[in-house]
Amino acid sequence: MKNLRILLKRNIGIAIIAFISQGIWEYVVCGTYYNVEAIDNMTLLMVQATMGDVAITLTIFNLLLVISKSIKWKMDIKDLVIIILYAFAATAFFESRALRLDRWSYSVAMTYFMGSGIGLVPVLQLVILLPLSVVIENIVTFKVFKDENI
To answer: Most exposed: 14, 25, 72, 141, by fewest CB within 10 Å?
Structure first.
């Protein structure tokens, strides 16, 4: 039961961190790098995109907890590389799918990632913010709370 409580606390923490950071990113870059004039309900789309990014973050975070076989997992440099690779793969999959389904399109300001047809901005978003969310969660969990509940 204690492990479930710890898992829940860690998931809530990282979800909040990811929601704030991803939401800010969406609102800051969306108008510049995406064609927003053709979208009827931009706020709804940005909330959905932010929630999708939170779900990706939670999935990768929990996958790493399972792989480490420890609820007390702390990120190290090897994990950082794995997180970045997972973040890149998730971006490639979800961004290409959203573009195919016409969920959004890029403005002329968007730079493409190595000629892939996927924008560099969404790649940078997950590759930067996902590991950053994990780092902040680790700091909060292991430094601020000083392992008192773990």
So the answer is: 72
Residue 52 has a pLDDT of 93
Residue with tokens 């990282």: 14
Question: How does DSSP classify residue 141?
Answer: I
Q: What is the mean pLDDT of the chain?
A: 87
- Given a cut of 70, the residues of the chain with pLDDT beneath it are 36, 38-39, 145-150
User: 26 lies in a domain?
Assistant: yes
Closest to 78 measured CA to CA, from 91, 68, 88? 68
**pLDDT of amino acid 39:** 65
Per DSSP, 1 falls in state -
Residue 118 CA to residue 122 CA, distance in Å, equals: 8
Residue type, 12: I
> For residue 61, what are the CA distances in angstroms to 10, 30, 35, 80, 96?
10, 26, 31, 11, 23
Which structural domain, as residue segments, surrounds residue 11? 2-144
- CB crowding 27-59: b at 16 or more within 10 Å, else e: eebbeebbeeeebeebeebbeebbeebbebbbe
